[in-house]
Amino acid sequence: MKQVLLIITLLVMAGCSGIPSLSQPIEITDATGHTETLDGIPDRIAIAGKATIMVQDTIFMFADAREKVIALENRSQSAFSFLPLIDPGLEEKEIFEKNVGPEQIAAVQPELVLMKSFMAEQLGEPLGQLNLPVLYLDLETPEAFYQDIQTLGQVFGDKKRADEISEFYQSRVATIEENLAGVTEDQKPGVLILQYTDREGEVAFKVPPVSWLQTRLVEISGGNPVWKEIDVGGGWIVVNLEQIAAWDPDQIFIISYDGNASDVKIDLMSNPIWSNFRAIQNGQIFAFAYDFYSWDQPDTRWILGLQWLATKIQPELNSNIDIMEEVYEFYSVLYGMDQETIDANVIPILTGDIP
Fold it and tell me: 251-277 burial, b for 16+ CB within 10 Å, e for fewer?
């Protein structure tokens, strides 16, 4: 009899706490405004579509992801160089091939599929036709990121963890905003972010769209993105040397998603054409920070990228930010790594101008 009363009490407490039980339907509205009604907190989650590393890294800040993610897609940027550190059971999961189709996803019988919002039409709609619940993550701005974290808090039934993650990010953004509260427009250096590519031997430099995270990071960090005058549409756009010379920014930040931004920087500094640029002459060209992935992307590392940028763009005002200390905090608080693991697996692969 006592056991029956205990069970009833626990069920009542669960209902009062606002945490849904496994059998209690839950309704979740995602970043796109799309709403799914799930039978309960899902135990079988699949991750699919392009840009999966951003989705995976975000999901795995929730400890339950290790058990509940049963399938994921392997794509570019060495998607599985980081996950083995935080999910020892990765080898037991179903690994989808690149550009996996809806039928292959359905075959693993997921209770929920998570993907980036721009995959809604291409992959989300076909999955919906197979009666598979789908939720989308945006992650493209700080505001969208916070909303996505709350969405995942519902998915995992862990609002407390969602709030902890949001607070981690928001407190660091607030520190930078407080540091730069008195900065006027004429005190903001002209900043140029350039992605370097060398595909099939053809070198190109590109700038991001104005609406993308890279632009926001520069603005929050106290810089003036000089490329804002260009309407670059929906993706990175190639710019030539004449355009870069016309901008002649105070600072240049080189991004390479292959991890060789430092080498590119060295080459540019010795290039007679680039040596005419103000940023080169003043030693204000930087290789963007990088560990497993570049810190400029709508990945969980955007907060490290923001803090790093702030110490480069407005170094005197952000002298209270210790980037190496923040790296330890990031991997410890968000992914549960101890110092020994961070020292062995993260610190040795840091590249770019760190600190």
Answer: bbbbbbbebbbbebbeebeeeeebeeb
Residues 129 and 50 in one domain: yes
For the packed helices 142-155 and 159-179, what is the interaxial angle rounded to 10 degrees? 160
Residue 85: which of 347, 352, 342, 355 has the closest Cα?
342
Q: How far apart are CA 4 and CA 81, in angstroms?
A: 48
Q: Is the Cα torsion angle 45, 257, 238, 193 positive or negative in sign? A: positive
Q: Cα(300)–Cα(86) distance, rounded to whole angstroms?
A: 14
- Number of structural domains in the chain: 2
Sequence-ordered list of residues with C-beta below 8 angstroms from that of 298, at least 6 positions apart, any chain: 51, 54, 139, 140, 141, 145, 212, 213
- Rounded to whole angstroms, the Cα distance separating 187 from 78 reads 39
Alpha-carbon distance of 264 to 65, in angstroms, equals 37
In three-state secondary structure terms, 222 is: coil
Q: What is the pLDDT of residues 228-281, one digit of tens each?
A: 988 666 789 999 999 999 999 999 999 999 889 999 999 999 999 999 999 999
Q: Tokens 């710019």 belong to which residue?
A: 239
Q: Which amino acid is at 336?
A: G
Return d(Cα 178, Cα 166) in angstroms, integer: 18
Same domain, 201 and 334: yes
Instruction: At 310, list the tokens.
Output: 């702030």
pLDDT of residue 23: 61
Distance (Å, whole) CA 10 – CA 301 = 38
> Helix 302-313 and helix 323-335: axis angle, to 10°?
170
Report the CATH number at residue 249.
3.40.50.1980
C-alpha to C-alpha distance for 260 and 168, rounded to whole angstroms: 29
Q: What is the pLDDT of residues 165-182, one digit of tens each?
A: 999 999 999 999 999 999
Residue 197 lies in a domain: yes
Using alpha carbons, select from 158, 145, 142, 85 the residue that is nearest to residue 117.
145
